[in-house]
Amino acid sequence: MSGTSNNNSYLVDPFDDQANENFQDININQSISLQSLQAAVTPQTFRPAYLPSGNRNRRLSLPYSQLDPYHDDFIDDDEEQDQFYSDSIGLMRQVSNMSNNSEANLPLTSNAAYSSTSPRPSMGHSEILMSNIKTETSMEQIKDVSPTNKYTTLGTLVVVLAATAFKEIMEDYKRHNSDSEVNKRICKSLKGKTFEGKEWNEVKVGDIIRVEGGEFFPADLILLSSSEPEGLCYIETSNLDGETNLKIKQAPTETAGLVSPAQIASLGGHIKSEKPNNSLYTFDGVLVMNTADGPKQVPLDPMQILLRGAQMRNTRWIYGIVIFTGHETKLMRNASATPIKRTSVEKMVNVQIIFLFCILLTMSLACSLGSLITSIKFGDKLSLIVTMEVVKFQQAALINSDLDMYYEKTDTPALCRTSSLVEELGQIEYIFSDKTGTLTCNEMEFRQCSIAGLAYADHVEEAKKAQVVDGVEAGIHDFKQLKTNLKNHPTGNVINEFLTLLAVCHTVIPEQKDENPDNVIYQASSPDEGALVKGALVLDFVFTTRRPKSVNIRVNGTDLEYEILNICEFNSTRKRMSTVVRSPDGKIKLYCKGADTVILERLSENNPFTEQTLQHLEEYATEGLRTLCIAMREISEEEYHNWSSVYEKASTTLTNRQEELDKAAEMIEKELFLLGATAIEDKLQDGVPETIHTLQQAGIKIWVLTGDRQETAINIGLSCKLIQEEMSLIIVNEESHFATEEFIKQKIKALKNRANPEAEPLALIIDGRSLEFALKKDLEKQFLDLATMCKAVVCCRVSPLQKALVVKLVKRHLKAILLAIGDGANDVSMIQAAHVGVGISGLEGMQAARSADVAISQFRYLKKLLLVHGAWSYYRLSKLILYSFYKNITLYMTQFWFTFHNGFSGQVIYESWTITYYNVLFTVLPPMVIGIFDQYVSARMLDRYPQMYMLGQKILLISNFNVRSFWGWTINAFFHSLVLYWVSIFIFDQDLVLSDGQLAGHWFWGTTLYTAVLATVLGKAALITDLWTKYTYLAIPGSFIFWVVFIMAYGTVAPKFRFSEEYDGIIPKLFTSPVFYLTVCLIPVICLFRDYIWKYSKRMYKTRSYHIVQEIQKFNIPDYRPRMEQFQKAIRKVRAVQRLRRSRGFAFSQNESGQEAHLIRVYDTTVAKPKG
């Protein structure tokens, strides 16, 4: 980044057409000597400056905010410009648009909903609603205009705003604390000639950092040296791109030898770097080193960049220099600002309030009673806001305290960070999921193998144990029997060669953890390779030592050395790896492992174990295991000598080297003898297949967005039941925009002509390159049309930004509620783009959980979160909103009808404090209890019948909140107010003469009507309640009893203190009058009789699915479906075998860097590594 530099640096226009021209000819900044004590005792070091582009003589006067397309995502326009200096040594880089407290030295996280630059919290409701409340509150303060007391009105508003703000502040405070945990992690930074601890948020550009094995990188670093030979370093980037294979990085040769603090402190020079950008796979820079012969330029490329969010693996330590921090890191460049999310229910509430406002305004103008009518809407909104906030907070608390979503292994409960979104959980139609760490555990385990036609497994069920039938061994042996067969079975020689191949043919590096020779740690760039070597270890073939030209294995206590002659590397075209070795007996052997398709076609004739091995492969495929075929051959000295010369020539050619090497390998990988096959489990999280199947039954469409390779993603899709056996795969792997467009158009045309679309479900597989074209403006709608025709969608090799773009595409074009779930920093953009974001927590470094609205520990908890808590929350909140509108309209409309009797004089029916207490005391509990505890069916029924979830998606429940139900409840409230008012008018016509001869009077009638209204709305609450708990009894009958006790006490005491004098003398007359009791009992029955008949007819004559489930729950009717499920499971197994026979060779994963042969040649594990 350039900016206000005093060192002749140029501002760079990122849109300059000449951005990549004349790289070497650019005029660069000169080194600066720092006048300080530190500079006096240490050599001058690096000062990175962004590479200018275009005309080197051109100067731009535009500020950086106008040049950086990402500037507005993170930085305010008025933010100060400042410089950052390294605390390590003399390194400095000019940084614009950052202050010392800004994002430049914040490492990763800033998930708060508001900050110091935007301090106003979002209350989750529209500005229109709140501005209306403020306007009406000011009107309520005018004496003789408002029917309520001005202090009660203002006090209620203050309570509402305070409660809402408190909830939002508490939720944001939790996010802030979570961010601080990351920002205050400690790393080691060079100061002088020693490394000292420093918090991540104090790391600055130019600091030299020491990172140790297993740690995450605190910033984007340039690798300088490491503990490994030639400055090698292994990193895991699953947090960034979803890739499970380890990436190999290598320090520049010129700095790889600086392996001590004193040596690294002696380094001097500066770095020219590209500007911050969001490309994870590219980097251009130049390291200019100060040497005795003058400045020396060392080119820097992606092999030297260590990105924030990645984790160092299989390497003891590295030294790296900080090049980007905070929001300049590539990880954060792929992120977006934390959005403010509002639910569809809130939006609909606001729309209906606007409609009500228009109606009430019309009524106000007609009756000239604006203040009275305003009190209707004001009371409605205030009580609704308070109740909704309290209920949502409690619903979130119920999620947090659910023991079914508590993960004991990591002591992690579910955590609902944004309670304002809980009802959205009941309307989800699309789920966008990451793969690595979300669906899988990123752990490979060696489970089964087939050797010489016999099946072996680590664990064998009793019914599947091997038996001898008609002289033939059938079934599965355990690994203990395998060890026995190695010694005294006719296939012992084949077993020996099989296990030797697993221990020798690989690129794994062994590391002795301590003095115990049996305690070996394997460093593998591919998790599959690591699992195979560990599997050999379990079977007593222990890989112990790697040297540049040989490997050692220990077999039953005996050390054997195998000379590594040649390695034919794996790539996606070959789908196999071969190693040519000289065994201890002097024989030359070729060991080969790979996909079944490529191995089977290279076998010699009359292989005795082919048929049995194929049968075992089919069985492994039905279990979702990743398979490899294992083969070998012996090579004569003459044949090897001839082939070796061809291989050497191919390895040194300057044109088409990889192609020539493949041809050379093809010459020797023939006439192979099939030893058997391996089966590795890419371990899924517990319950993933069942959860996905259940969610699909619930009408939720699941898309997997992963950075992993296509073969791995498809295999995981099959094993987790996202891609089912009966599905046909549509695979999009195009290299151009035109080809992608043509493919999509042809597929859409073909699919539209299908006679029965439901007969053959589809799954869409698309890679990142094709997705880049599909997301273009002219093609995105067609891509979405194709994707929505498929039951499952898998997007492979996608970047974090593409994940977010896919979510936004669906969000923009479909009227559906979307949920995104992931566990890594690469999933944050996707999580924030969806309506609801869910993060997988419980693992160190998982920023997704901190940025999400809800955090859970396991993917399987998503089932209860949505099908139970989500369905309940949406149902409860819908009923709460409808009932809140109903109860307020019912009360206040009786006052509206009274205007036609009082000559529009402004006289009200009820005493003002009683009106205020209506929503605060007497009807506050029923909607709250309904919103927190009500259940239309139990959690067990919702889990048994996941199709019930579709009622929320399609808004089919009677109590679901939509325009139709809202106006239905509104009309019902108008009807009840009419009955209440006019029947009471009929009873009290010409006033009522009491037994003592006195007239009852206006306030006697008003109190009686108020009691009847209260009895009616509480009776309505009882009628719509599905689950009665102790809290329900306290809320509904308890509220009415509380009103009776309250009015008796308040009406007697208050007038004596010249307060609420309308009740003076009323109470003794009221509770001794039979007319009072008749009115309170009769009118509610008349009102609610229609509601009861309506509910009865709907249940008996227009029955819906949830009515039936309620009956099943009530009478505990058994479910006979498990038998059908067993039958369907058998059908799926047959289809899995059929699919395997149609398409093989995609069931394993291997690193494809093209450097394995070179890398393993530089390792010698017998030599001690530098301690750094």
Automatic annotation (TrEMBL):
Limits of the P-type ATPase C-terminal domain: 849-1102
Membrane topology classification: Multi-pass membrane protein
Catalytic residues as annotated in Swiss-Prot or TrEMBL: 434 (4-aspartylphosphate intermediate)
Cofactor requirement: Mg(2+)
SUPFAM superfamilies: Calcium ATPase, transduction domain A, Calcium ATPase, transmembrane domain M, HAD-like, Metal cation-transporting ATPase, ATP-binding domain N
GO biological process per UniProt: endocytic recycling; phospholipid translocation; post-Golgi vesicle-mediated transport
Keywords: ATP-binding, Golgi apparatus, Magnesium, Membrane, Metal-binding, Nucleotide-binding, Translocase, Transmembrane, Transmembrane helix
One GO CC annotation: trans-Golgi network
Residue ranges occupied by any P-type ATPase A domain in the UniProt entry: 183-250
TM annotation in the entry: 353-373, 880-898, 918-937, 966-988, 1000-1019, 1031-1054, 1074-1094
Subcellular location(s) of the protein: Golgi apparatus, trans-Golgi network membrane; Membrane
The protein's enzyme class: translocase
Reactions that this protein is recorded to catalyse: ATP + H2O + phospholipidSide 1 = ADP + phosphate + phospholipidSide 2; a 1,2-diacyl-sn-glycero-3-phosphoethanolamine(out) + ATP + H2O = a 1,2-diacyl-sn-glycero-3-phosphoethanolamine(in) + ADP + phosphate + H(+); a 1,2-diacyl-sn-glycero-3-phospho-L-serine(out) + ATP + H2O = a 1,2-diacyl-sn-glycero-3-phospho-L-serine(in) + ADP + phosphate + H(+)
Record: residues binding Mg(2+): 434, 436, 823, 827
Predominant location category: Golgi
Superkingdom as given in the UniProt entry: Eukaryota
Protein name: Phospholipid-transporting ATPase
Gene3D superfamilies in the record: Calcium-transporting ATPase, cytoplasmic domain N (3.40.1110.10), Calcium-transporting ATPase, cytoplasmic transduction domain A (2.70.150.10), HAD superfamily/HAD-like (3.40.50.1000)
The family this protein is said to belong to: Belongs to the cation transport ATPase (P-type) (TC 3.A.3) family. Type IV subfamily.
InterPro entries tied to this protein: ATPase_P-typ_cyto_dom_N (IPR023299), ATPase_P-typ_P_site (IPR018303), ATPase_P-typ_TM_dom_sf (IPR023298), ATPase_P-typ_transduc_dom_A_sf (IPR008250), ATPase_P-type_domA (IPR059000), HAD-like_sf (IPR036412), HAD_sf (IPR023214), P-type_ATPase_IV (IPR006539)
Listed NCBIfam families: ATPase-Plipid, ATPase_P-type
A family per Pfam: E1-E2_ATPase
Keyword Cytoplasm annotated: no
Sequence positions that bind ATP: 434-436, 529, 570, 593, 626, 706-708, 797, 803, 826-827
